[in-house]
């Protein structure tokens, strides 16, 4: 039973870290500032962007997703999109989206575009219309550095689980799916999550998720946890339950 003891040993610090992070305010996972150009203070773009951001903060929590644009002329229009993780409550979604907006404006003060991710949400804006297109530019991965004991079997099971969840997310109205799979003969499981931004078509959601799953071997081969996250979709797996039911 040494393997289940190992599991418990690592489960506790992870859970604790998660709880501490939640109660003291979460840090962003990652961000990018766009290179599409800068705006100046008091420009029409700045005004439109601020209006857009406030409207997204207001409208996202009820459904966990927001999309919109503000601007009279093409060259001054700001386009924005927000997404909360599928299991996040409306109030946690609101907290996350508000914090994300503040933080991305701090980190990319004059950029016409930016994107920031947290565990609970994502916030993206840009000076051109990116809706309905798979974002292949803004992407990152994360991993749990701990190795699994049987990488070949574990990688195979992880791919099985996430591929099923990719399909489920792509045909669900929230474009979000979670699930778990028992590994080996014991009580250990893999827990998975897939989610797309709801501006994508069902086919593009599936494609985005499948591409992300195919990148897991290069970031997270044989690791106990991993994520591939982009501006359009994300996949995550862990050996402990990490979503709220
Ligand atoms: C945009 O502003 C940043 C500082 O916020 C600066 O480093 C960058 O050179 C500017 N880019 C352009 C194209 O002016
Ligand atoms: C944006 O478009 C408007 C209307 O077409 C034009 O009057 C304005 O000069 C343009 N601004 C810039 C910065 O190109
Ligand atoms: C995981 O395995 C790799 C390659 O076998 C090794 O280099 C690394 O130190 C291991 N990491 C941990 C945390 O045990």
UniProtKB/TrEMBL annotation:
Entry keyword Secreted: yes
GO annotation, cellular component aspect: extracellular region
Domain Gnk2-homologous: 27-130, 136-242
Pfam families: Stress-antifung
Keywords: Repeat, Secreted, Signal
Keyword match Repeat: yes
Name the UniProt record assigns to this protein: Gnk2-homologous domain-containing protein
Organism: Clitoria ternatea
């Amino acid at each position: 039973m040494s393997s289940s003891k190992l599991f418990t040993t690592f489960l506790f610090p992870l859970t604790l870290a998660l709880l501490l992070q939640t109660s003291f305010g979460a840090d962003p996972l990652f961000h990018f500032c766009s290179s599409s150009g800068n705006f100046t203070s008091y420009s029409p773009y700045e005004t439109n962007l601020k209006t857009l951001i406030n409207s997204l903060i207001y409208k996202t929590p009820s459904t966990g997703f927001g999309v919109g644009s503000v601007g009279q002329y093409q060259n001054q229009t700001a386009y924005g999109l927000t997404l909360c993780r599928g299991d996040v409550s409306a109030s946690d979604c609101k907290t996350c989206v508000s914090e994300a907006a503040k933080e991305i404006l701090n980190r990319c003060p004059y950029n016409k575009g930016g994107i920031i991710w947290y565990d609970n949400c994502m916030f993206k804006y840009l000076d051109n219309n990116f809706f309905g297109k798979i974002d292949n530019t803004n992407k990152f991965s994360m991993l749990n550095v701990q190795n699994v004991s049987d990488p070949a079997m574990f990688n195979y099971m992880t791919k099985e689980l996430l591929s099923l969840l990719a399909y489920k997310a792509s045909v669900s109205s929230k474009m979000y799916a979670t699930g778990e799979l028992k590994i080996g003969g014991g009580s250990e499981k893999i827990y998975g999550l897939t989610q797309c931004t709801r501006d994508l078509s069902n086919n593009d959601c599936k494609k985005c998720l499948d591409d992300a799953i195919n990148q897991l071997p290069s970031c997270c081969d044989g690791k106990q946890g991993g994520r591939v996250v982009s501006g359009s979709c994300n996949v995550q797996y862990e050996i402990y339950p990490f979503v709220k039911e």
